[in-house]
């Protein structure tokens, strides 16, 4: 059992949101749905909470009415091993939402996500300050992260046109495999500010 579970307050879209998130992440499932009874405060029989799992992280979504809204002050960071994972998750989660800078996006329900390649964290930990500087400068020009461009910036080279993954990150490489991402909360620090979303 997880000791800490993110609890997400929606107006009345909890079930819709959970169905969406469990369709985006392959390793996911809806665990339980509870409904309002005669005591309310929601309509009797309406969904009150939905418990669900994305990867190994458990969440609970609540239909609590329009009192509270989501903000980018809390986000979920998804670490991706390969460019294709970055591309797929970025496309799915940003659909109907709002793309942001440096791998950040707000989905159509107002929740903020960070789609971050694990390669970026390794490149930023370089002992060479000039390489780290080049990676940071490249990062600040991006919305969705480009692994090949980040690696090229680190190496002081130009990214090859059409190259999606830097050497060693493809199938069988150091970052090989699919669905190699996990979620952590709160997420990686955003370098700027974002528009607040609605729950």
Task: Name the descriptors.
199 residues, alpha+beta, Signal recognition particle alu RNA binding heterodimer, srp9/1, 4-stranded mixed sheet, 5 helices, 23% strand, elongated
User: What is the approximate shape?
Assistant: elongated
H/E element order: EHEEEEHEEEHHHE
Q: Percentage of helical residues?
A: 25-40%
Helix and strand content put the structural class at alpha+beta
Give the biggest sheet. 5 strands, mixed
* Helical run tally: 5
Side by side, the strands of the main sheet go: 6-7-8-5-9
Report the mean per-residue pLDDT as an integer: 85
For this structure, the CATH topology of the largest domain is 2,3-Dihydroxybiphenyl 1,2-Dioxygenase, domain 1
- Enumerate the spans where pLDDT stays under 50 for 5 or more consecutive residues: 167-199
The CATH class of the largest domain is Alpha Beta
Explain what the structure shows:
The structure is a single chain. Mean pLDDT is 85; it is low at 167-199. A 5-stranded mixed sheet has the order 6-7-8-5-9. It has 199 residues and is an alpha+beta fold. Helix 4 runs antiparallel to helix 5 (147-155). Strand 3 (47-54) and strand 4 form a beta hairpin. It folds into 2 domains: 7-63, Signal recognition particle alu RNA binding heterodimer, srp9/1 (2-Layer Sandwich); 75-184, 2,3-Dihydroxybiphenyl 1,2-Dioxygenase, domain 1 (Roll), CATH 3.10.180.10. The chain has 5 helices and 9 strands; from the N terminus they run βαββββαβββαααβ. The protein has helices at residues 14-24, 83-94, 118-124, 129-139, 147-155, and strands at residues 7-10, 28-35, 47-54, 57-63, 75-80, 98-99, 104-106, 112-117, 183-184. The relative contact order is 0.19.
């Amino acid at each position: 059992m997880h000791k800490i579970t993110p609890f997400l307050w929606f107006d009345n879209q909890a079930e819709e949101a959970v169905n969406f998130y469990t369709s985006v992440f392959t390793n996911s499932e809806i665990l339980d749905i509870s409904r309002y009874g005669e005591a309310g405060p929601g309509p009797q029989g309406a969904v009150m909470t939905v418990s669900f799992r994305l990867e190994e992280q458990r969440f609970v979504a609540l239909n609590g009415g329009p009192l509270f809204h989501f903000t980018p002050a809390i986000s979920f960071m998804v670490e991706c091993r390969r460019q294709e994972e970055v591309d797929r998750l970025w496309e799915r989660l940003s659909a109907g939402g709002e793309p942001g800078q440096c791998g950040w996006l707000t989905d159509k329900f107002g929740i903020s996500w960070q789609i971050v390649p694990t390669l970026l964290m390794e490149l930023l930990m370089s002992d060479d300050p000039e390489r780290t500087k080049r990676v940071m400068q490249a990062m600040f020009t991006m919305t969705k992260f480009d692994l090949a461009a980040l690696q090229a910036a680190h190496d002081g080279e130009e990214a090859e046109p059409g190259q999606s993954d830097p050497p060693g990150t493809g199938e069988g490489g150091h970052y090989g495999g699919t669905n190699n991402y996990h979620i952590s909360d709160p997420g990686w620090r955003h370098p700027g500010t974002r528009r607040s979303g609605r729950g």
